[in-house]
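hey so u asked for the seq, here:
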Amino acid sequence: MHNAPAQVQAVLEALPRAAIVQGGDERVIAVNRRFTDMFALDAAGVAHGPGAPLGPVVDAVCATFAESPAWAGDTAHAIAARRVHRAAEIRLADGRTIRRDVEPLYDDARNLLGSLWTAEDVTEDKRREHALERDNRTLAELARQRNEFLAHASHSLRTPLASVISFCELLADPVSGPLGPEQREFLDAVHRNARRMERVIATLMETAVVRAPELRLEFGPVDVPRMLTHAVLDRIGDTAAAGVFVVLAPAPGPPLHGDELRLVNVLANLLENAAKFTPPGGTVTVTSAVDDGHWSVDVADTGIGVPQEYREEIFSGFFRAPNAERGGFAGTGLGLALSRDIVRRHGGDLTVADAPGPQGGAVFTVRLPVAGPAPGPSVPGADPQAAAP
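ran it, structure tokens below
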């Protein structure tokens, strides 16, 4: 075995990693150029050709390590006798990091013939990994600061805004004295826009709370048809004022494991948007179905629709599709971002597509697993102990 066949040497040279094959008799069978260069065996003056003793090669390799490994004193004999795959990441004295694998080699009768060592320079991979971890920490801190700012700013704005609304209502009261038509018009404009600002502030505060990493959703059984009925009834005043007809067709099904309060907020936002972007005389249709262990809830309208190229951007926050901007529809673009975040914390998703039928419009689909989110880091805010009913 001391003279390596040409085929073995050719295979080692073709490998993308540094490699050396050792025999069970503690001698080198073959080594490729990448291994020789990685550990500077030529410069160390260590014999490493076929038949060379393994001990000096192991010592030369260990001499390049930043710290002497625990097994260094065991050297050649213990390494040659290893019968299981071993892997380790080792830092070299010159600052590089390598991944070293030792794979035992057996014949057909499962007799140990030796081992194949391979080594790969993973310095750049580790650098990118550390950079990614650093960037993630930075982003998490920025998100925390953003949420803190939103909460503080929203809270600071609510008090003076409440005074503006209160004085508007006092001035509108006949007891305060008569107002001329123009004064009444101005007062109505102030009151209307103050109320709009109040809704924006409430959305900002909700965004800061729901997107906080430490938020814990409160899961429990949710009767989906009942939830949909209540959501539609709660918004009946808005839809009626918009001149929109609402059709509700919930399908029966098993209880959903979720946070009903948060999901009602999602439905309220979708219904409000549907009524806002649907012209008077249009229709909003709310349906539900169960398939493949998931609840699907569709809120379809006959409104202006969402252009294909903006169907992801509208969920990013502070973004509104151009047709909504051109139409002069009020809004901040936060509601859909907040709604998708809540749905994804339930292990589901919120998407938008063209509404079925010739009238056009959009259909927003909420898809949620019946059993609730699977425990794990991919669902922030989910309670792993309450992921199933």
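The radius of gyration is 34 Å. The first helix runs from residue 6 to 14.
lmk if thats what u needed
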